[in-house]
Amino acid sequence: MIFTKHIKPYSILLLSVLLIGCSKSQKLEVKSNDIYLKILGTIQDGGIPHMGCNKKCCKNYFLNQNRRMGVSSIGITNLKYDTNYLIDATPDVNFQLESLIGSANPSEKLNGIFLTHAHMGHYAGLLNFGRESLNSVNIPLYLMPKFHDFILNNGPWNQLVTLKNINLFEINADKELILDDNLSITPVQVPHRDEYSETVGFVIKGKSKKALYIPDIDKWEKWNVSIVESIKNVDYAFLDGTFYDQKEINNRDMSEIPHPFVIESMKLFDDLEIKHKNKIYFIHLNHTNPLLNSNSKEYKYVVSNGYNVAKEGLELKL
Hints:
Blueprint: E1 2-3, E2 35-41, H1 56-64, E3 73-78, E4 83-87, H2 93-101, E5 112-114, H3 120-123, E6 139-143, H4 145-153, H5 157-162, E7 166-170, E8 177-180, E9 183-189, E10 200-205, E11 210-214, H6 227-232, E12 236-240, H7 262-268, H8 274-277, E13 280-283, H9 297-304, E14 308-309, E15 315-317
Parallel strand pairs: 1-8, 4-5, 5-6, 6-7, 11-12, 12-13, 13-14
Antiparallel strand pairs: 2-3, 2-15, 3-4, 8-9, 9-10, 10-11
């Protein structure tokens, strides 16, 4: 096991207090010693509305100037120790931190950021911590080795290190990191397009439950780990649901973005008992994904088979 001390950031500038997304937060009754996980965003890197999209799925957002739906991210709050952790720093990080912490100055209570990989929607939000914006002080940032070196040796990211806006910590696949005595996180490396970094998901272990978070992966069969067995070993599984099926994208080479289709995942999980299917939440949905419409036949088919579609604001106890 790897142990780390909390590094608390100090005074910082005001972040926006606007909330993101259109879904209402699903509040839990929580006690002072509870740990809970909160879904802060559910959309693929480009968010909604998506640049260049003139389809109905995005057009109304532009026409009505509705707030965008947030890019996939989750937060963890440990009320026993008043600690908060963020997984992925998305382009919506300002809103997502306020949603997680509930404060006009949320980073005063942010004890660490964990990044899955170096694709736009998962780390571009780091720029908000720089001196042009927040000018934070020593926010702990947890990264796999290749990602650690990329941040350290490439601008504009290394300026965040030089100016001590962030403090880098290297983590390793399958090595449990103890955050609090009742909370830990373990990176699990998965196959994906690793141009600048490795790609990982995370197993988050709380007081009594475990969650698996894999927002990005190539086809499940490329992984040397059984996702079916992984689901059995956790209480919640937030899994890559970027595209529902092949028909969804007709202007891109799908070999360049080989996410597992939701229908493929459902076929793979078909023999799971219903109690295990109920653990699964599809997340990281592309703006074209029919699962974003709860009235669609695709959404109703997924839910009727025992699966869930992740909703922004959902809170679950760990």
